[in-house]
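Query form — protein Helix-turn-helix domain-containing protein

QUESTION: What is the three-dimensional structure of this chain?
INPUT:
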Amino acid sequence: MAAPYRVALVAFPGIRAFDVSVITEVWGTDRTDRGAPAFDLRRVTADGTTAVPMRGGLALHPDRTLDWLDGADLVLVPGLDDHLTPAPAPVLDALRRAHASGTTVAALCGGAFTLAQAGLLDGRRAITHWRLTDLLRTRHRRVTVVPDALFIEDDNIWTAAGTAAGIDLCLHLVRLAHGAEAAATIARSMVTAPFRTGTQAQFIEHPTPRAARDADALAAVREHALRHLHEPLTIADLAARAGMSPRSFARHFTAATGTTPLRWLLDQRIAAAQKLLERTDLPMPEVARRSGFGSEVTMRQHFASRLATSPRAYRAAFTGGSNPIAR
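ANSWER: The structure tokens for Helix-turn-helix domain-containing protein are given below.
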């Protein structure tokens, strides 16, 4: 039996209770009876004993010291209630050591400011909540702030946009380490989407509210597409189903999801292929057909461009328990 995946939640006064809850819900709940991997989540502080107060009268009770980061597979930094809260020096030192040793380090929302304090984002790309991008750029000028991603990675350091994007990042990290089905199992338990496409640009401004009819039509079209991925769907077909012209459909779809209809459809096909590769021994041409790629060649091309691996390598790696995704 494989050893549990070791996850360290780094805590200090000022961290956000919501982000702590997200991390705990994803990695701190035992779902092995539903086929999810076994996780070993530890709440890590400088002394390993003193409770960390959080907003709303909550408190986090640690169970490990910062030394535990040395053996962790993943280190997570929650966001902050006050985004300029200075992290304790031992925390910053521990984060630097973890990254230097090759451990994946990830920050949710304003946790990017903590990583920036540690110097881990110097010369690297990072994201935070869209209301905080200017502040991050001003306070940490050596950081390349990306304004409109949900989450991004640079040199095995992950950062995420605000609030719900932390859920997106956590599920994505599960997907990278354990596969799409493991992430989907956890997402179903949380009653959330296994992944969202697009960027946080869709949330920044809402200059013209869309009619409820258009929103309902788009939701119905997406549901139809997911049920018929194996068919040769075209954007014109989907637009007609929504009762819109292709141009109007593309505009409304992008405004609602933050991504184009074509890219969204490709994301769904890749996710479907990943699940088939993980859960079945179907031959590659059949996997390609069921996920809507039409041919193994087309599926292989999209896996190479989006996942930096091949379908065969993806299946072999998850069968053997290693991570097929190029970091």
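ADDITIONAL NOTE: The longest helix spans residues 261-279.
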